[in-house]
Amino acid sequence: MKLKIIITFLFTIGLFLIPFNKVEVLPFLGEFRNESSIVFFLLAFFVLIIYYWLSGKIHLPFKNNLFQLVLMFIIWCLLSTVFNFFDIRFYYFKQTDGITRFIKQYISLIISGLVCFNLYWFVLKDKRNDEILKYIRKIFLYSLIFASIYGSLEIFVSYFKINFFTPLFNLLSHLPFLNNNIYNTGRISSVSQEPPFLAIYLITIASWMFSYIITSKSKFRFLPTIAIIVLTFFSGSRTALAIVSIQFIIFIYFLYSIFGYKKLIFNSFKIAFFCLAIGFVIFGSKFYDAINEKVKSLNFVENMTSSISNKSRFGMQYTSLLVFSENPILGVGLGQQAFVAKDKYPDWATEDNYEFEHYYLNENNTSFPPSFNLYTRILAELGIIGFIIFVYLEFLIIKNTLTLLKKDNTFLGKVLAINLLISFIGLFINWLQFDSFRIYGVWIFIAILIIYQKNYEQNSRINSSL
Asked: Where does the UniProt entry say this protein principally localizes (predicted)?
């Protein structure tokens, strides 16, 4: 019993620290080296191993179709690499051979899809749906409060150049897992390493914060939503701005169609208009310039040709598809895309592009070039078979969540289903420009969805027997 308490405590700390990835904490863990939360998740998992050893039981949902697909995908990652072994053993790029690259990437996938997933499942499996909703959302809220305070100070210091807040900002930066890196462009990253990582965090928790509007009667119930919008706006992330907007529109749709909160929707827009008006009054042209800049940033057609970053992104994605076209069935093996792609990047992406010269094709820079799109990466590395497994997993996740939303007649059950659905949609869209499986929210929410299904089926059987 004490071990369960320790495991839950460590998980809670890890959940709170999800957005904290500014400093290197575990350099030997590759892409997890800056992830503060992984320290506590791994500690919790080690305690969980002791619990399994003492109890003689391993708790995992082996009979669930979603978990079976996760296992199938992980197995295919191994098989695809085995089938390509004779090519992989000769690969060498950025002082790394193909086999070493596979081992690192496979360990990363195992940590996300099995190790951490096992922890999430164990901590939450005995909770009711309403308990899961309140527990997860409360931790997300506490995390957002800290990120908002730190992010607000960063906005005042970096964007509005109000030096009065600099001492306090520097003081908070001495806390564990933080440092005071400031972007000259005025973008903020809050407690995260870079604005894109802040964007992933905001996309992960957005719907959970929106749902306070429905479930809370407090006059402060709009503040979490406002915090999400403000941090998204000043992060400067076009992806976050687009996806969080989509998530909010979906939430408004459910707010109207399921709960019929017409008055609440109207009041929400009044509050948003009031906040904009206050911003214009206090900060004047600076606030107008910020809005105008964000609107222009959403012109993807213009930015595609004028932005070095976008040239790199589209070049990487295009090259991944080239690799897939040459290896359509099996792919080239997990983690091997960069070895094959390095000689295939198109001239329109590499010419006059310092990112390729200094980073992506520079042998002295040991960081591997990103693919900037998980779906094109899967096509290149795992072929059409791996892609079908992965996309079918996503399809079933959305389908099962929609089914629960339709069938569950409980108020908090519907809120939980909406939170999961909007979160999945946002994170799946985000994978169009992010190529790592290392998104905690996806695996946490899959565990929650499986538990939700189990609880709903049990309650249905009980009700039918009565």
From this structure: membrane
